[in-house]
Amino acid sequence: MTGTLVLIRHGQSDWNLKNLFTGWRDVELTETGRIEALAGGQRLKAKGLKFDIAFTSALKRAQNTCQIVLDELGQSGLETVRNEALNERDYGDLSGLNKDDARAKWGEEQVYIWRRSYDVPPPGGESLKDTGARVWPYYIHEVQPHVLRGQTVLVAAHGNSLRALIMALEGIAGPDIVNLELATGVPIVYRLNADSTVASKEILAAV
Questions:
Q1: Which end of the chain has a smaller Cβ tally under 10 Å, C or N?
Q2: Which SS3 state, helix, strand or coil, does residue 127 take?
Q3: Domain enclosing residue 143, as ranges
Q4: Does the annotation mark 72 as catalytic?
Q5: Is 10 in the active site?
């Protein structure tokens, strides 16, 4: 028996729009972000997908994306588990700063290393490796068992928490994952084998 795992990065947030480092700061979706989440829900609906359970982070931009998707599918009351293990990477001292201002303060090369390296954290924050250290155990113990029972599971989270999860799912090495970008509001549908390996992957991008 195979189960289905759907990952979706939250729609555009206020701080995405303003080019700010967001991390654990709890900001709202923009109108564009709500439209992106709705479109993701519509593409899932067109595939005939229905969920047995949903997981999301402790941050409202992911929670709201999750709810918009479920509303579109007619599953507004679905059991939804919220946990900070799925939160975005903590950008520490960079949180709330404009990315251009950060480059002016620390230099373009240093900010690039903080943003794009696998294991170098910004001051007071988390690297992608650190983010994975909380995402992976949570996935294995809380999310994966539902999928392996043949259920269809939604995870609505963030660019870096989902990239860390994709590393584990697809066996991608740390240096290679840094080049993976996830579009906002675009569902990724995985079918898993009984041994937890990926049987298939489909990105439901806008046509």
A1: C
A2: coil
A3: 3-32+49-90+132-203
A4: no
A5: yes
